[in-house]
Specification:
Shape of chain B: globular
Distance between the termini of chain B: 22 Å
Radius of gyration of chain A: 21 Å
CATH superfamily of chain B: Glutaredoxin
Strand order of the largest sheet of chain B: 2-1-3-4
Helix content of chain A: 10-25%
CATH class of chain B: Alpha Beta
Order of helices and strands of chain B: HEHEHEEHHE
Number of domains of chain B: 1
Number of strands of chain B: 5
Number of helices of chain A: 6
Oligomer: heterotrimer
Number of helices of chain B: 5
Radius of gyration of chain B: 16 Å
CATH architecture of chain B: 3-Layer(aba) Sandwich
CATH topology of chain B: Glutaredoxin
Chains: A alpha/beta, B alpha+beta, C alpha+beta
Strand content of chain B: 15-25%
Largest sheet of chain B: 4 strands, mixed
Distance between the termini of chain A: 54 Å
Largest sheet of chain A: 7 strands, mixed
């Protein structure tokens, strides 16, 4: 199937270093973009800093089909619309790596690869990265058979056999997606039941191309130039076995991108940022929103809601309320 | 049945009218409708690629299209550095340095449109320091970007 | 970049149509960028880091 899509006009102005913004948002996923939208509408001078591409985890998702009100699933379009909407009201976006931050005091400093930016308030919306297996072979074969993104890389496994590691929504949904290309998808899970939402599970169980390996963990990823198999261990019996596969997709959870904030804001033992119901961290003027926050649910709908709250309370903070 | 929707055609016609500066020559290398297929040069989307660039070039007087046969015009292909098809060469002030191999579908189509405009303007939105660094290059650089339709 | 410099040529290659090249450069993910056969990286980079990779390729 071919289609030809036009991206919305990219007219978002870039931020200039050394300007003092009312609000700087770190991260251009759904939480950051929603915060940008609300902040700009509130009249705050707003800069969003993104290190790679806008969209966060959603940019890597095949289809966003559980955003309330959007019956037709969306993917990249959703992010384009959010970006357009935020820039329509005046939010600026700069692409740079954040190198260091100083969040104490009235003026916060954000040092980036594109220069130093200053702000009265900061919203941390840096999201999460994929948890690695930490198994031998994982780094060596990354991009050569080890992947963390089915949407990006699935097409390279046409008529091949791939393993998916994990038992949550991401693992099972992406496994289901991979059957569009792969001849067989083997979902490897360390427990004997999936953690994924019921509808997602049902879809996977009904898919004849999906097989399951229960109670199994990956000991090693093996191959020569590219991956050709996995060494598995049965957690009940301790028995090892080899499983020939052409690729392996890892979806075993996420870790927060908060290394930069260690020692500056309070983090929980897993590294997520605890906030109150106004999305405020323990540091005055510093807020957190989206997946990076200590929160019971990490979805686009919760991330955008967080972003809105964080922006509204950043506005009140700046105006001394 | 056009590949580009009527709405998008209207939008692009307007955009090209506003933003194109110099003429852009699009050269498409494809293979003819001959029943003989050249072994090893299976051309999955040659027909669609041709239709696509025909539709795009029809949207502005400033876009000229030349369709060439990869086999019959092998000499020209070699001269332009084209080694596989379908190949779309964007030629203006850029001396054939921008090429698309394969059909630019999904959001790649959007990048393709932006490239046509940048080639026509002979300038991009790159930062000034990037432009300066590029201007100081003394060696040739060949960038290949692999993409899939999204 | 190819528009800005006479020394730069850029090809956008639709991976699923050119399997042999994909195998040659062991493309297992997109976007994958190969510069002068010497430098390669995967994923989107900010402009300044992208430029650094181009300059690295031009030096080797």
């Amino acid at each position: 199937m071919l289609d030809f899509k036009l991206r919305p006009e990219d007219s978002t102005p870039e931020g200039e270093p050394n300007d003092v913004y009312d609000l700087i948002i770190l991260g251009g996923g759904p939480a950051g973009l929603a915060a940008g939208l609300y902040a700009a509408r509130a009249g705050l001078s707003t800069l969003l800093i993104e290190k790679g591409i806008l969209g966060g985890q959603i940019a890597l998702t095949a289809n966003l089909e559980n955003f309330p009100g959007c019956i037709e699933g969306m993917g990249a379009d959703f992010i384009f619309k959010l970006e357009q909407q935020a820039s329509k009201f005046g939010a600026k976006i700069t692409y740079a790596d954040v190198l260091d931050v100083n969040l104490q005091g009235e003026t916060k400093t954000i040092g980036t690869s594109a220069g130093r930016f200053l702000a009265k308030a900061v919203t941390i919306a840096t999201g999460t990265s994929f948890q690695k297996l930490e198994a031998p072979g994982e780094e060596k074969f990354r991009g050569r058979g080890v992947s963390f993104c089915a949407t990006c890389d699935g097409a390279f496994y046409r008529d091949k056999v791939v393993a998916v590691i994990g038992g949550g929504d991401a693992a099972v949904e992406e496994g289901d997606f991979l059957t569009r290309f792969a001849s067989k998808v083997i979902i490897i899970h360390r427990r004997d039941a999936l953690r994924a939402t019921k509808i997602v599970q049902d879809r996977a169980f009904a898919n004849p191309k999906i097989e399951f390996r229960w109670n199994s963990v990956v000991e090693e990823i093996v191959g020569d130039e590219t991956v050709n198999g996995l060494v598995l261990r049965d957690v009940k019996t301790g028995e090892r076995s080899e499983l020939p596969v052409d690729g392996v997709f890892v979806f075993i959870g996420t870790i927060p991108n908060t290394q930069l904030f260690k020692g500056q804001v309070t983090l929980n033992p897993q590294g997520f940022v605890p906030t109150d119901e106004k999305m405020a961290t323990n540091v005055p003027g510093v807020f957190a929103a989206g997946d990076v926050r200590q929160t019971p649910l990490r979805q686009v709908v919760t991330a955008t809601a967080d972003g809105a709250i964080a922006a509204v309370y950043a506005d009140r903070y700046i105006h001394g309320e | 049945m056009p590949l580009i929707s009527a709405d998008d055609q209207t939008f692009l016609r307007d955009k090209f009218a506003k933003e194109l500066v110099n003429t852009v020559d699009i050269v498409l290398f494809t293979q003819g409708d001959s029943p003989l297929t050249v072994r090893g040069q299976e051309c999955a989307y040659c027909k669609e690629t041709r239709q696509l660039v025909e539709e795009v070039s029809a949207l502005s007087d400033k876009i000229n299209l030349a369709v060439r046969d990869f086999v019959a015009d092998a000499e020209k292909a070699k001269q332009m550095g084209v080694d596989k098809i379908p190949a779309i060469v964007l030629d203006s002030g850029t001396e054939e340095r921008v090429k698309y191999y394969g059909i630019p579908s999904g959001y790649e189509f959007s990048s393709f449109v932006e490239d046509i405009i940048d080639v026509s303007k002979r300038s991009t939105n790159l930062k000034d320091n990037t432009k300066q660094a590029l201007a100081q290059l003394t060696k040739d650089v060949h960038i290949q970007v692999f993409v899939t339709p999204t | 970049m190819a528009i800005e410099s006479a020394h730069v040529k850029a090809d956008v290659v639709e991976a699923s149509e050119f399997v042999p090249l994909v195998e040659k450069y062991r493309v297992h993910g997109v976007p994958k960028v190969v510069i002068n056969e010497t430098v390669e990286f995967e994923g989107a980079l900010p402009e300044d880091r992208y430029l650094a990779e181009v300059l690295k390729a031009a030096q080797s």
